[in-house]
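TEACHING EXERCISE
Course module: macromolecular assemblies
Task: Read the component lines below, then compare them to the predicted structure of the full complex.
Student: A.B.
Group: 4
Components provided:
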Amino acid sequence: MGMHLVAMQFIRIVEEVKTVDDLTAAMQAVTDELGFQYFALTHHVDVLAAEGAAIRLHNYPDRWADYYDRNALGVSDPVHRASHVTSVGFCWSRMAEMIPLTAEDRRVLAMGREEGIGEGFTVPAHVPGEARGSCSFASEAGRPIVVDLLPMAQLAGAFAFEGARRLWSQRGHLPKPPSPALTDRQRDCLLWAARGKTDWEISRILGVTEETVARHIKLACARYGVSKRTLLAIRALFDGTLTFTDIFRR
Amino acid sequence: MLHIMQPDARPAPDGVLRAMFAARKSVFVDLLKWDVPVIDGAYEVDQFDDAHATYLVLADSEEGHLASARLLPTTRPHILDSFYAGLCEEAPPRGDDVYEITRFCLDRELNARERRAARDTLVTALAGHALSAGIARYTAIAEMPWFQQILAFGWRCRPLGLPQVIGGTMLVALGIEIDADTPAQLAAAGILPSIDIPAARVAA
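Instructor-supplied answer key:
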């Protein structure tokens, strides 16, 4: 059967899935078709802290999954970080070219290999305003991946993530309520703060008093329910109130 | 307000179209660096912007551009069959009730919240237009991140072939089936018109 037909069959199944078990079975089947042994469909958040609100579906060995969750690797997993710097699927062996890997990252990857997880292919999935996510397929350590099937893995990953999103939203977790809106002036102040300017510098740039700048930022923090401007900037970047392009634009 | 400009109903409000071509230049040429023609250094207009194209344009009360899309009949040369037929496993879909969505454009002046509102409104309008104009299927070409968003709209969307890297970008051709269920599918995925659209004004 041609690759496209296999992909279409999987897509039709995913469109019809009604339960997480159905989706797991479909993922298992397509993982086999793609020549992989493992799959992981997940939001990049601390899965234990999210208490079921985050998408998470996988067939990794139990021991590895437990360790992974206990150490909240969902937020720092190098695979997830790498998937944030690209828009298309990538092989894990290319990760070192994509993001700086720390000693801890290398330890986690080595540990995954010891638990039997070898090379993998991750498809990033980002729906604006929601947590980033991805769909990964992985081979048992020592087994090569079938490069010719990767375009199909790319498509399967995109539809699998959307299928999971649909299931999880029926469980009432997605989509999230709208983020708090900042006033234009609050956003301006935050933008300059995120560019590293002090309140005094921002007051010169915007032609207002330093107190006014401080008040705008304080009110913006209140709207997001955070107490630090660093966290405010991160939340605003996350929900799209600010973009990296805004911050680095000259 | 939503302006629907159809081939048999010209001329359209001048300002709305001009603002759209300027917004397209800003998005596709300046931002996305597409290699497409620019007229007078200000307007992105290509060979498919002819008497056969339909435009859906969302504009504010001063004819300022918010969002827009161009629909091309698939019974005539269009982008998928002219340049990207290789993205389709079979022949590109063609028919009186099949239109290609191209130049889906959200204005760069909008902030994240407004972009989302404009996007959702335009997507809803595309479905509404299809239903009233007898269009059963849209086709389109998308880069992968945009494709993930199109899937998240909740309508019935299928790839027409496997994704391919063309000119350094991974592209996929897709088909979107539109029927009486589509508006409810969009609504279930949270895609609702949030910019006031009175009865669609068709330029007469």
